[in-house]
Design brief:
- The relative contact order is 0.19.
- The chain is globular, with a radius of gyration of 23 Å.
- The chain has one domain: Amino acid/polyamine transporter I (Up-down Bundle), CATH 1.20.1740.10.
- With about 475 residues, the protein is mainly alpha-helical.
- The longest helix is centred in the first third of the chain and has 36 residues.
- Helix 2 runs parallel beside helix 10.
- It has 19 helices and two strands.
- A two-stranded antiparallel ribbon has the order 1-2.
Length: about 475
């Protein structure tokens, strides 16, 4: 009789609607590396060189971006172990600075950060898939966008279907992309050992450097490192987060920094700065020079690398919308989970049409500068909030504590880069700032529900109910934080 009761209890536990803790250390490391190493290292070298003006300075920018990203990742390791909720930036702003900054972060994530980043990565995916078939002619842009759209659709489908499938896809794609980086590094190191150093002569010529362009070089570099914070979006799904989060973050960022600097050194052994600036797809140009026998393989590996970054983004970002809805800052439908698949289906699906829209209209380098202001401004606010929280609540349990000098350095540098970018690229930065501020009236109209007319609320609630039935989703039944 007891066995039957136990069986019933187990069955009930399995049927309970909530997000499971399924991410161990290897998936966590794969999740960070797989999201960080996307299209950035294969495209951003051009943007870094263009804005830094010399080979030596561009390599220095890559190394400093790696150190800065590690500092930021360590700050987020403290935040991730201090606050056990998922949601990343949103949760930390909510806990340390209050609801308005948290809502604004949620607003810009939904409105343009995630759609812009996903469309950037998917465009790179499409370019690397299509261009080999048309070389040496330029590939038709409509075809690139069509293939990009197919890539996004595949990733959305995987993340709607199963958390386990998305996690396994990420691990597999991470191993593939690290192999791609090794394939680029080895010929570069061999050529360097043979004395092919002419592109490094006078590497620090600073004639073409202007101080106002340097933040844009850092934006391009930091964009390639972007993604170190994605594990914090899924804290509630990480097994033993107090140990896993700091370990995964530290190992991942040190590994990525070393690989990125070596890849850039390899690029410069085979290409002059002028050739690199002329290249639309740097890894392709490199493959044609250094890996004639394997040149057809590199585009496939890079395309799969982009797919891994897309997958990581679509796995992490919807959790921010999910947590925001759970806290009452987003429509309740987005805090619901599919009753059988146990995935945050509405939150994943919400981003899809926005990505498609931006994909059909965006241009790569404008997208980076456009997104970076808001992204880095809110990261700086989150780490500033961490310092304020430390001062106000010194007894709050912090299983991992980052040295104060690292946290202060990271926060100050972030604010400095954000401030300088207003001078460097006032048009894109201004648009980004204006779009962020549009969230303020939305917050006061919608989070305080009584400001909305009763009829609007009735229509909204009816639509939400119909969507819930259509998507087969329900509220989480177990508290996971």
């Amino acid at each position: 009789m007891k066995k039957e009761e136990d069986g019933e209890k187990t069955k009930t536990d399995e049927e309970v609607v909530h997000l499971r803790r399924e991410i161990g250390l290897l998936p966590a490391v794969s999740f960070i590396i797989g999201t960080v190493v996307g299209s950035g290292i294969f495209i951003a070298p051009k943007g870094v060189l263009m804005n830094s003006g010399s080979v030596g300075l561009s390599l220095l920018v890559w190394a400093l971006c790696g150190v800065l990203s590690l500092f930021g990742a360590l700050c987020y390791a403290e935040l991730g172990t201090s606050f056990t909720k998922s949601g990343g930036h949103y949760t930390y702003l909510l806990e340390t600075l209050g609801p308005l900054p948290a809502f604004l972060r949620l607003w810009v994530e939904f409105l343009f950060i995630r759609p812009a980043v996903a469309s950037y990565v998917s465009l790179a995916f499409g370019r690397y898939v299509v261009e080999p078939f048309f070389a040496p002619c330029p590939a038709p842009m409509p075809l690139i966008k069509l293939v990009s759209l197919l890539g996004v659709t595949f990733v959305v489908a995987v993340n709607c279907w199963s958390v386990t499938m998305a996690s396994r896809t990420q691990v597999t794609l991470t191993f593939i992309k690290m192999f791609a980086l090794v394939l680029i590094i080895i010929p570069g190191v061999i050529a360097l050992a043979k004395g092919k150093t002419e592109n490094f002569q006078n590497g620090f010529e600073v004639d073409s450097l202007t101080l106002d362009m340097l933040p844009l070089a850092f934006y391009n570099g930091l964009y390639a490192y972007g993604g170190w914070f994605y594990l914090n979006f899924v804290t509630e799904e990480v097994i033993n987060p107090n140990r896993t989060i700091p370990l995964a973050i530290s190992f991942s960022m040190v590994t990525v920094t070393i690989f990125y600097v070596l890849v850039n050194v390899a690029y410069y052994t085979m290409m002059t700065p002028a050739e690199l600036l002329l290249s639309e797809a740097v890894a392709m140009t490199f493959a044609n020079r250094a890996l004639q026998g394997l040149s057809s393989v590199i585009p496939i590996l890079v395309a799969l690398s982009c797919l891994g970054a897309l997958n990581g983004g679509f796995f992490g970002s919807p959790r921010m919308l999910f947590v925001g809805a759970r806290e009452g800052h987003w429509p309740p439908i987005f805090s619901m989970i599919h009753v059988r698949r146990k995935t945050p289906l509405p939150a994943v699906l919400l981003l899809y049409p926005l990505v498609v829209l931006m994909l059909t209209t965006g241009e790569i380098y404008q997208l980076i500068n456009f997104v970076s202001f808001s992204r880095w401004f809110f990261i700086a606010l989150a780490t500033m909030g961490m310092l304020i929280h430390r001062y106000r609540f010194p007894l709050h349990p912090r299983p991992f504590k980052v040295p104060l000098v690292i946290a202060v350095t990271f926060t100050v540098v972030c604010f400095f880069i954000v401030g300088l970018s207003l001078y460097s690229d006032p048009w894109n930065t201004g648009k980004s700032c204006a779009l962020t501020l549009t969230g303020i009236p939305v917050y006061y109209m919608t989070v305080y529900r009584f400001r909305l007319p009763r009829r609007w609320r009735r229509i909204f609630n009816y639509c939400s109910k119909q969507l819930q039935i259509l998507l087969e989703v329900a509220q989480q039944e177990v508290q996971t934080y």
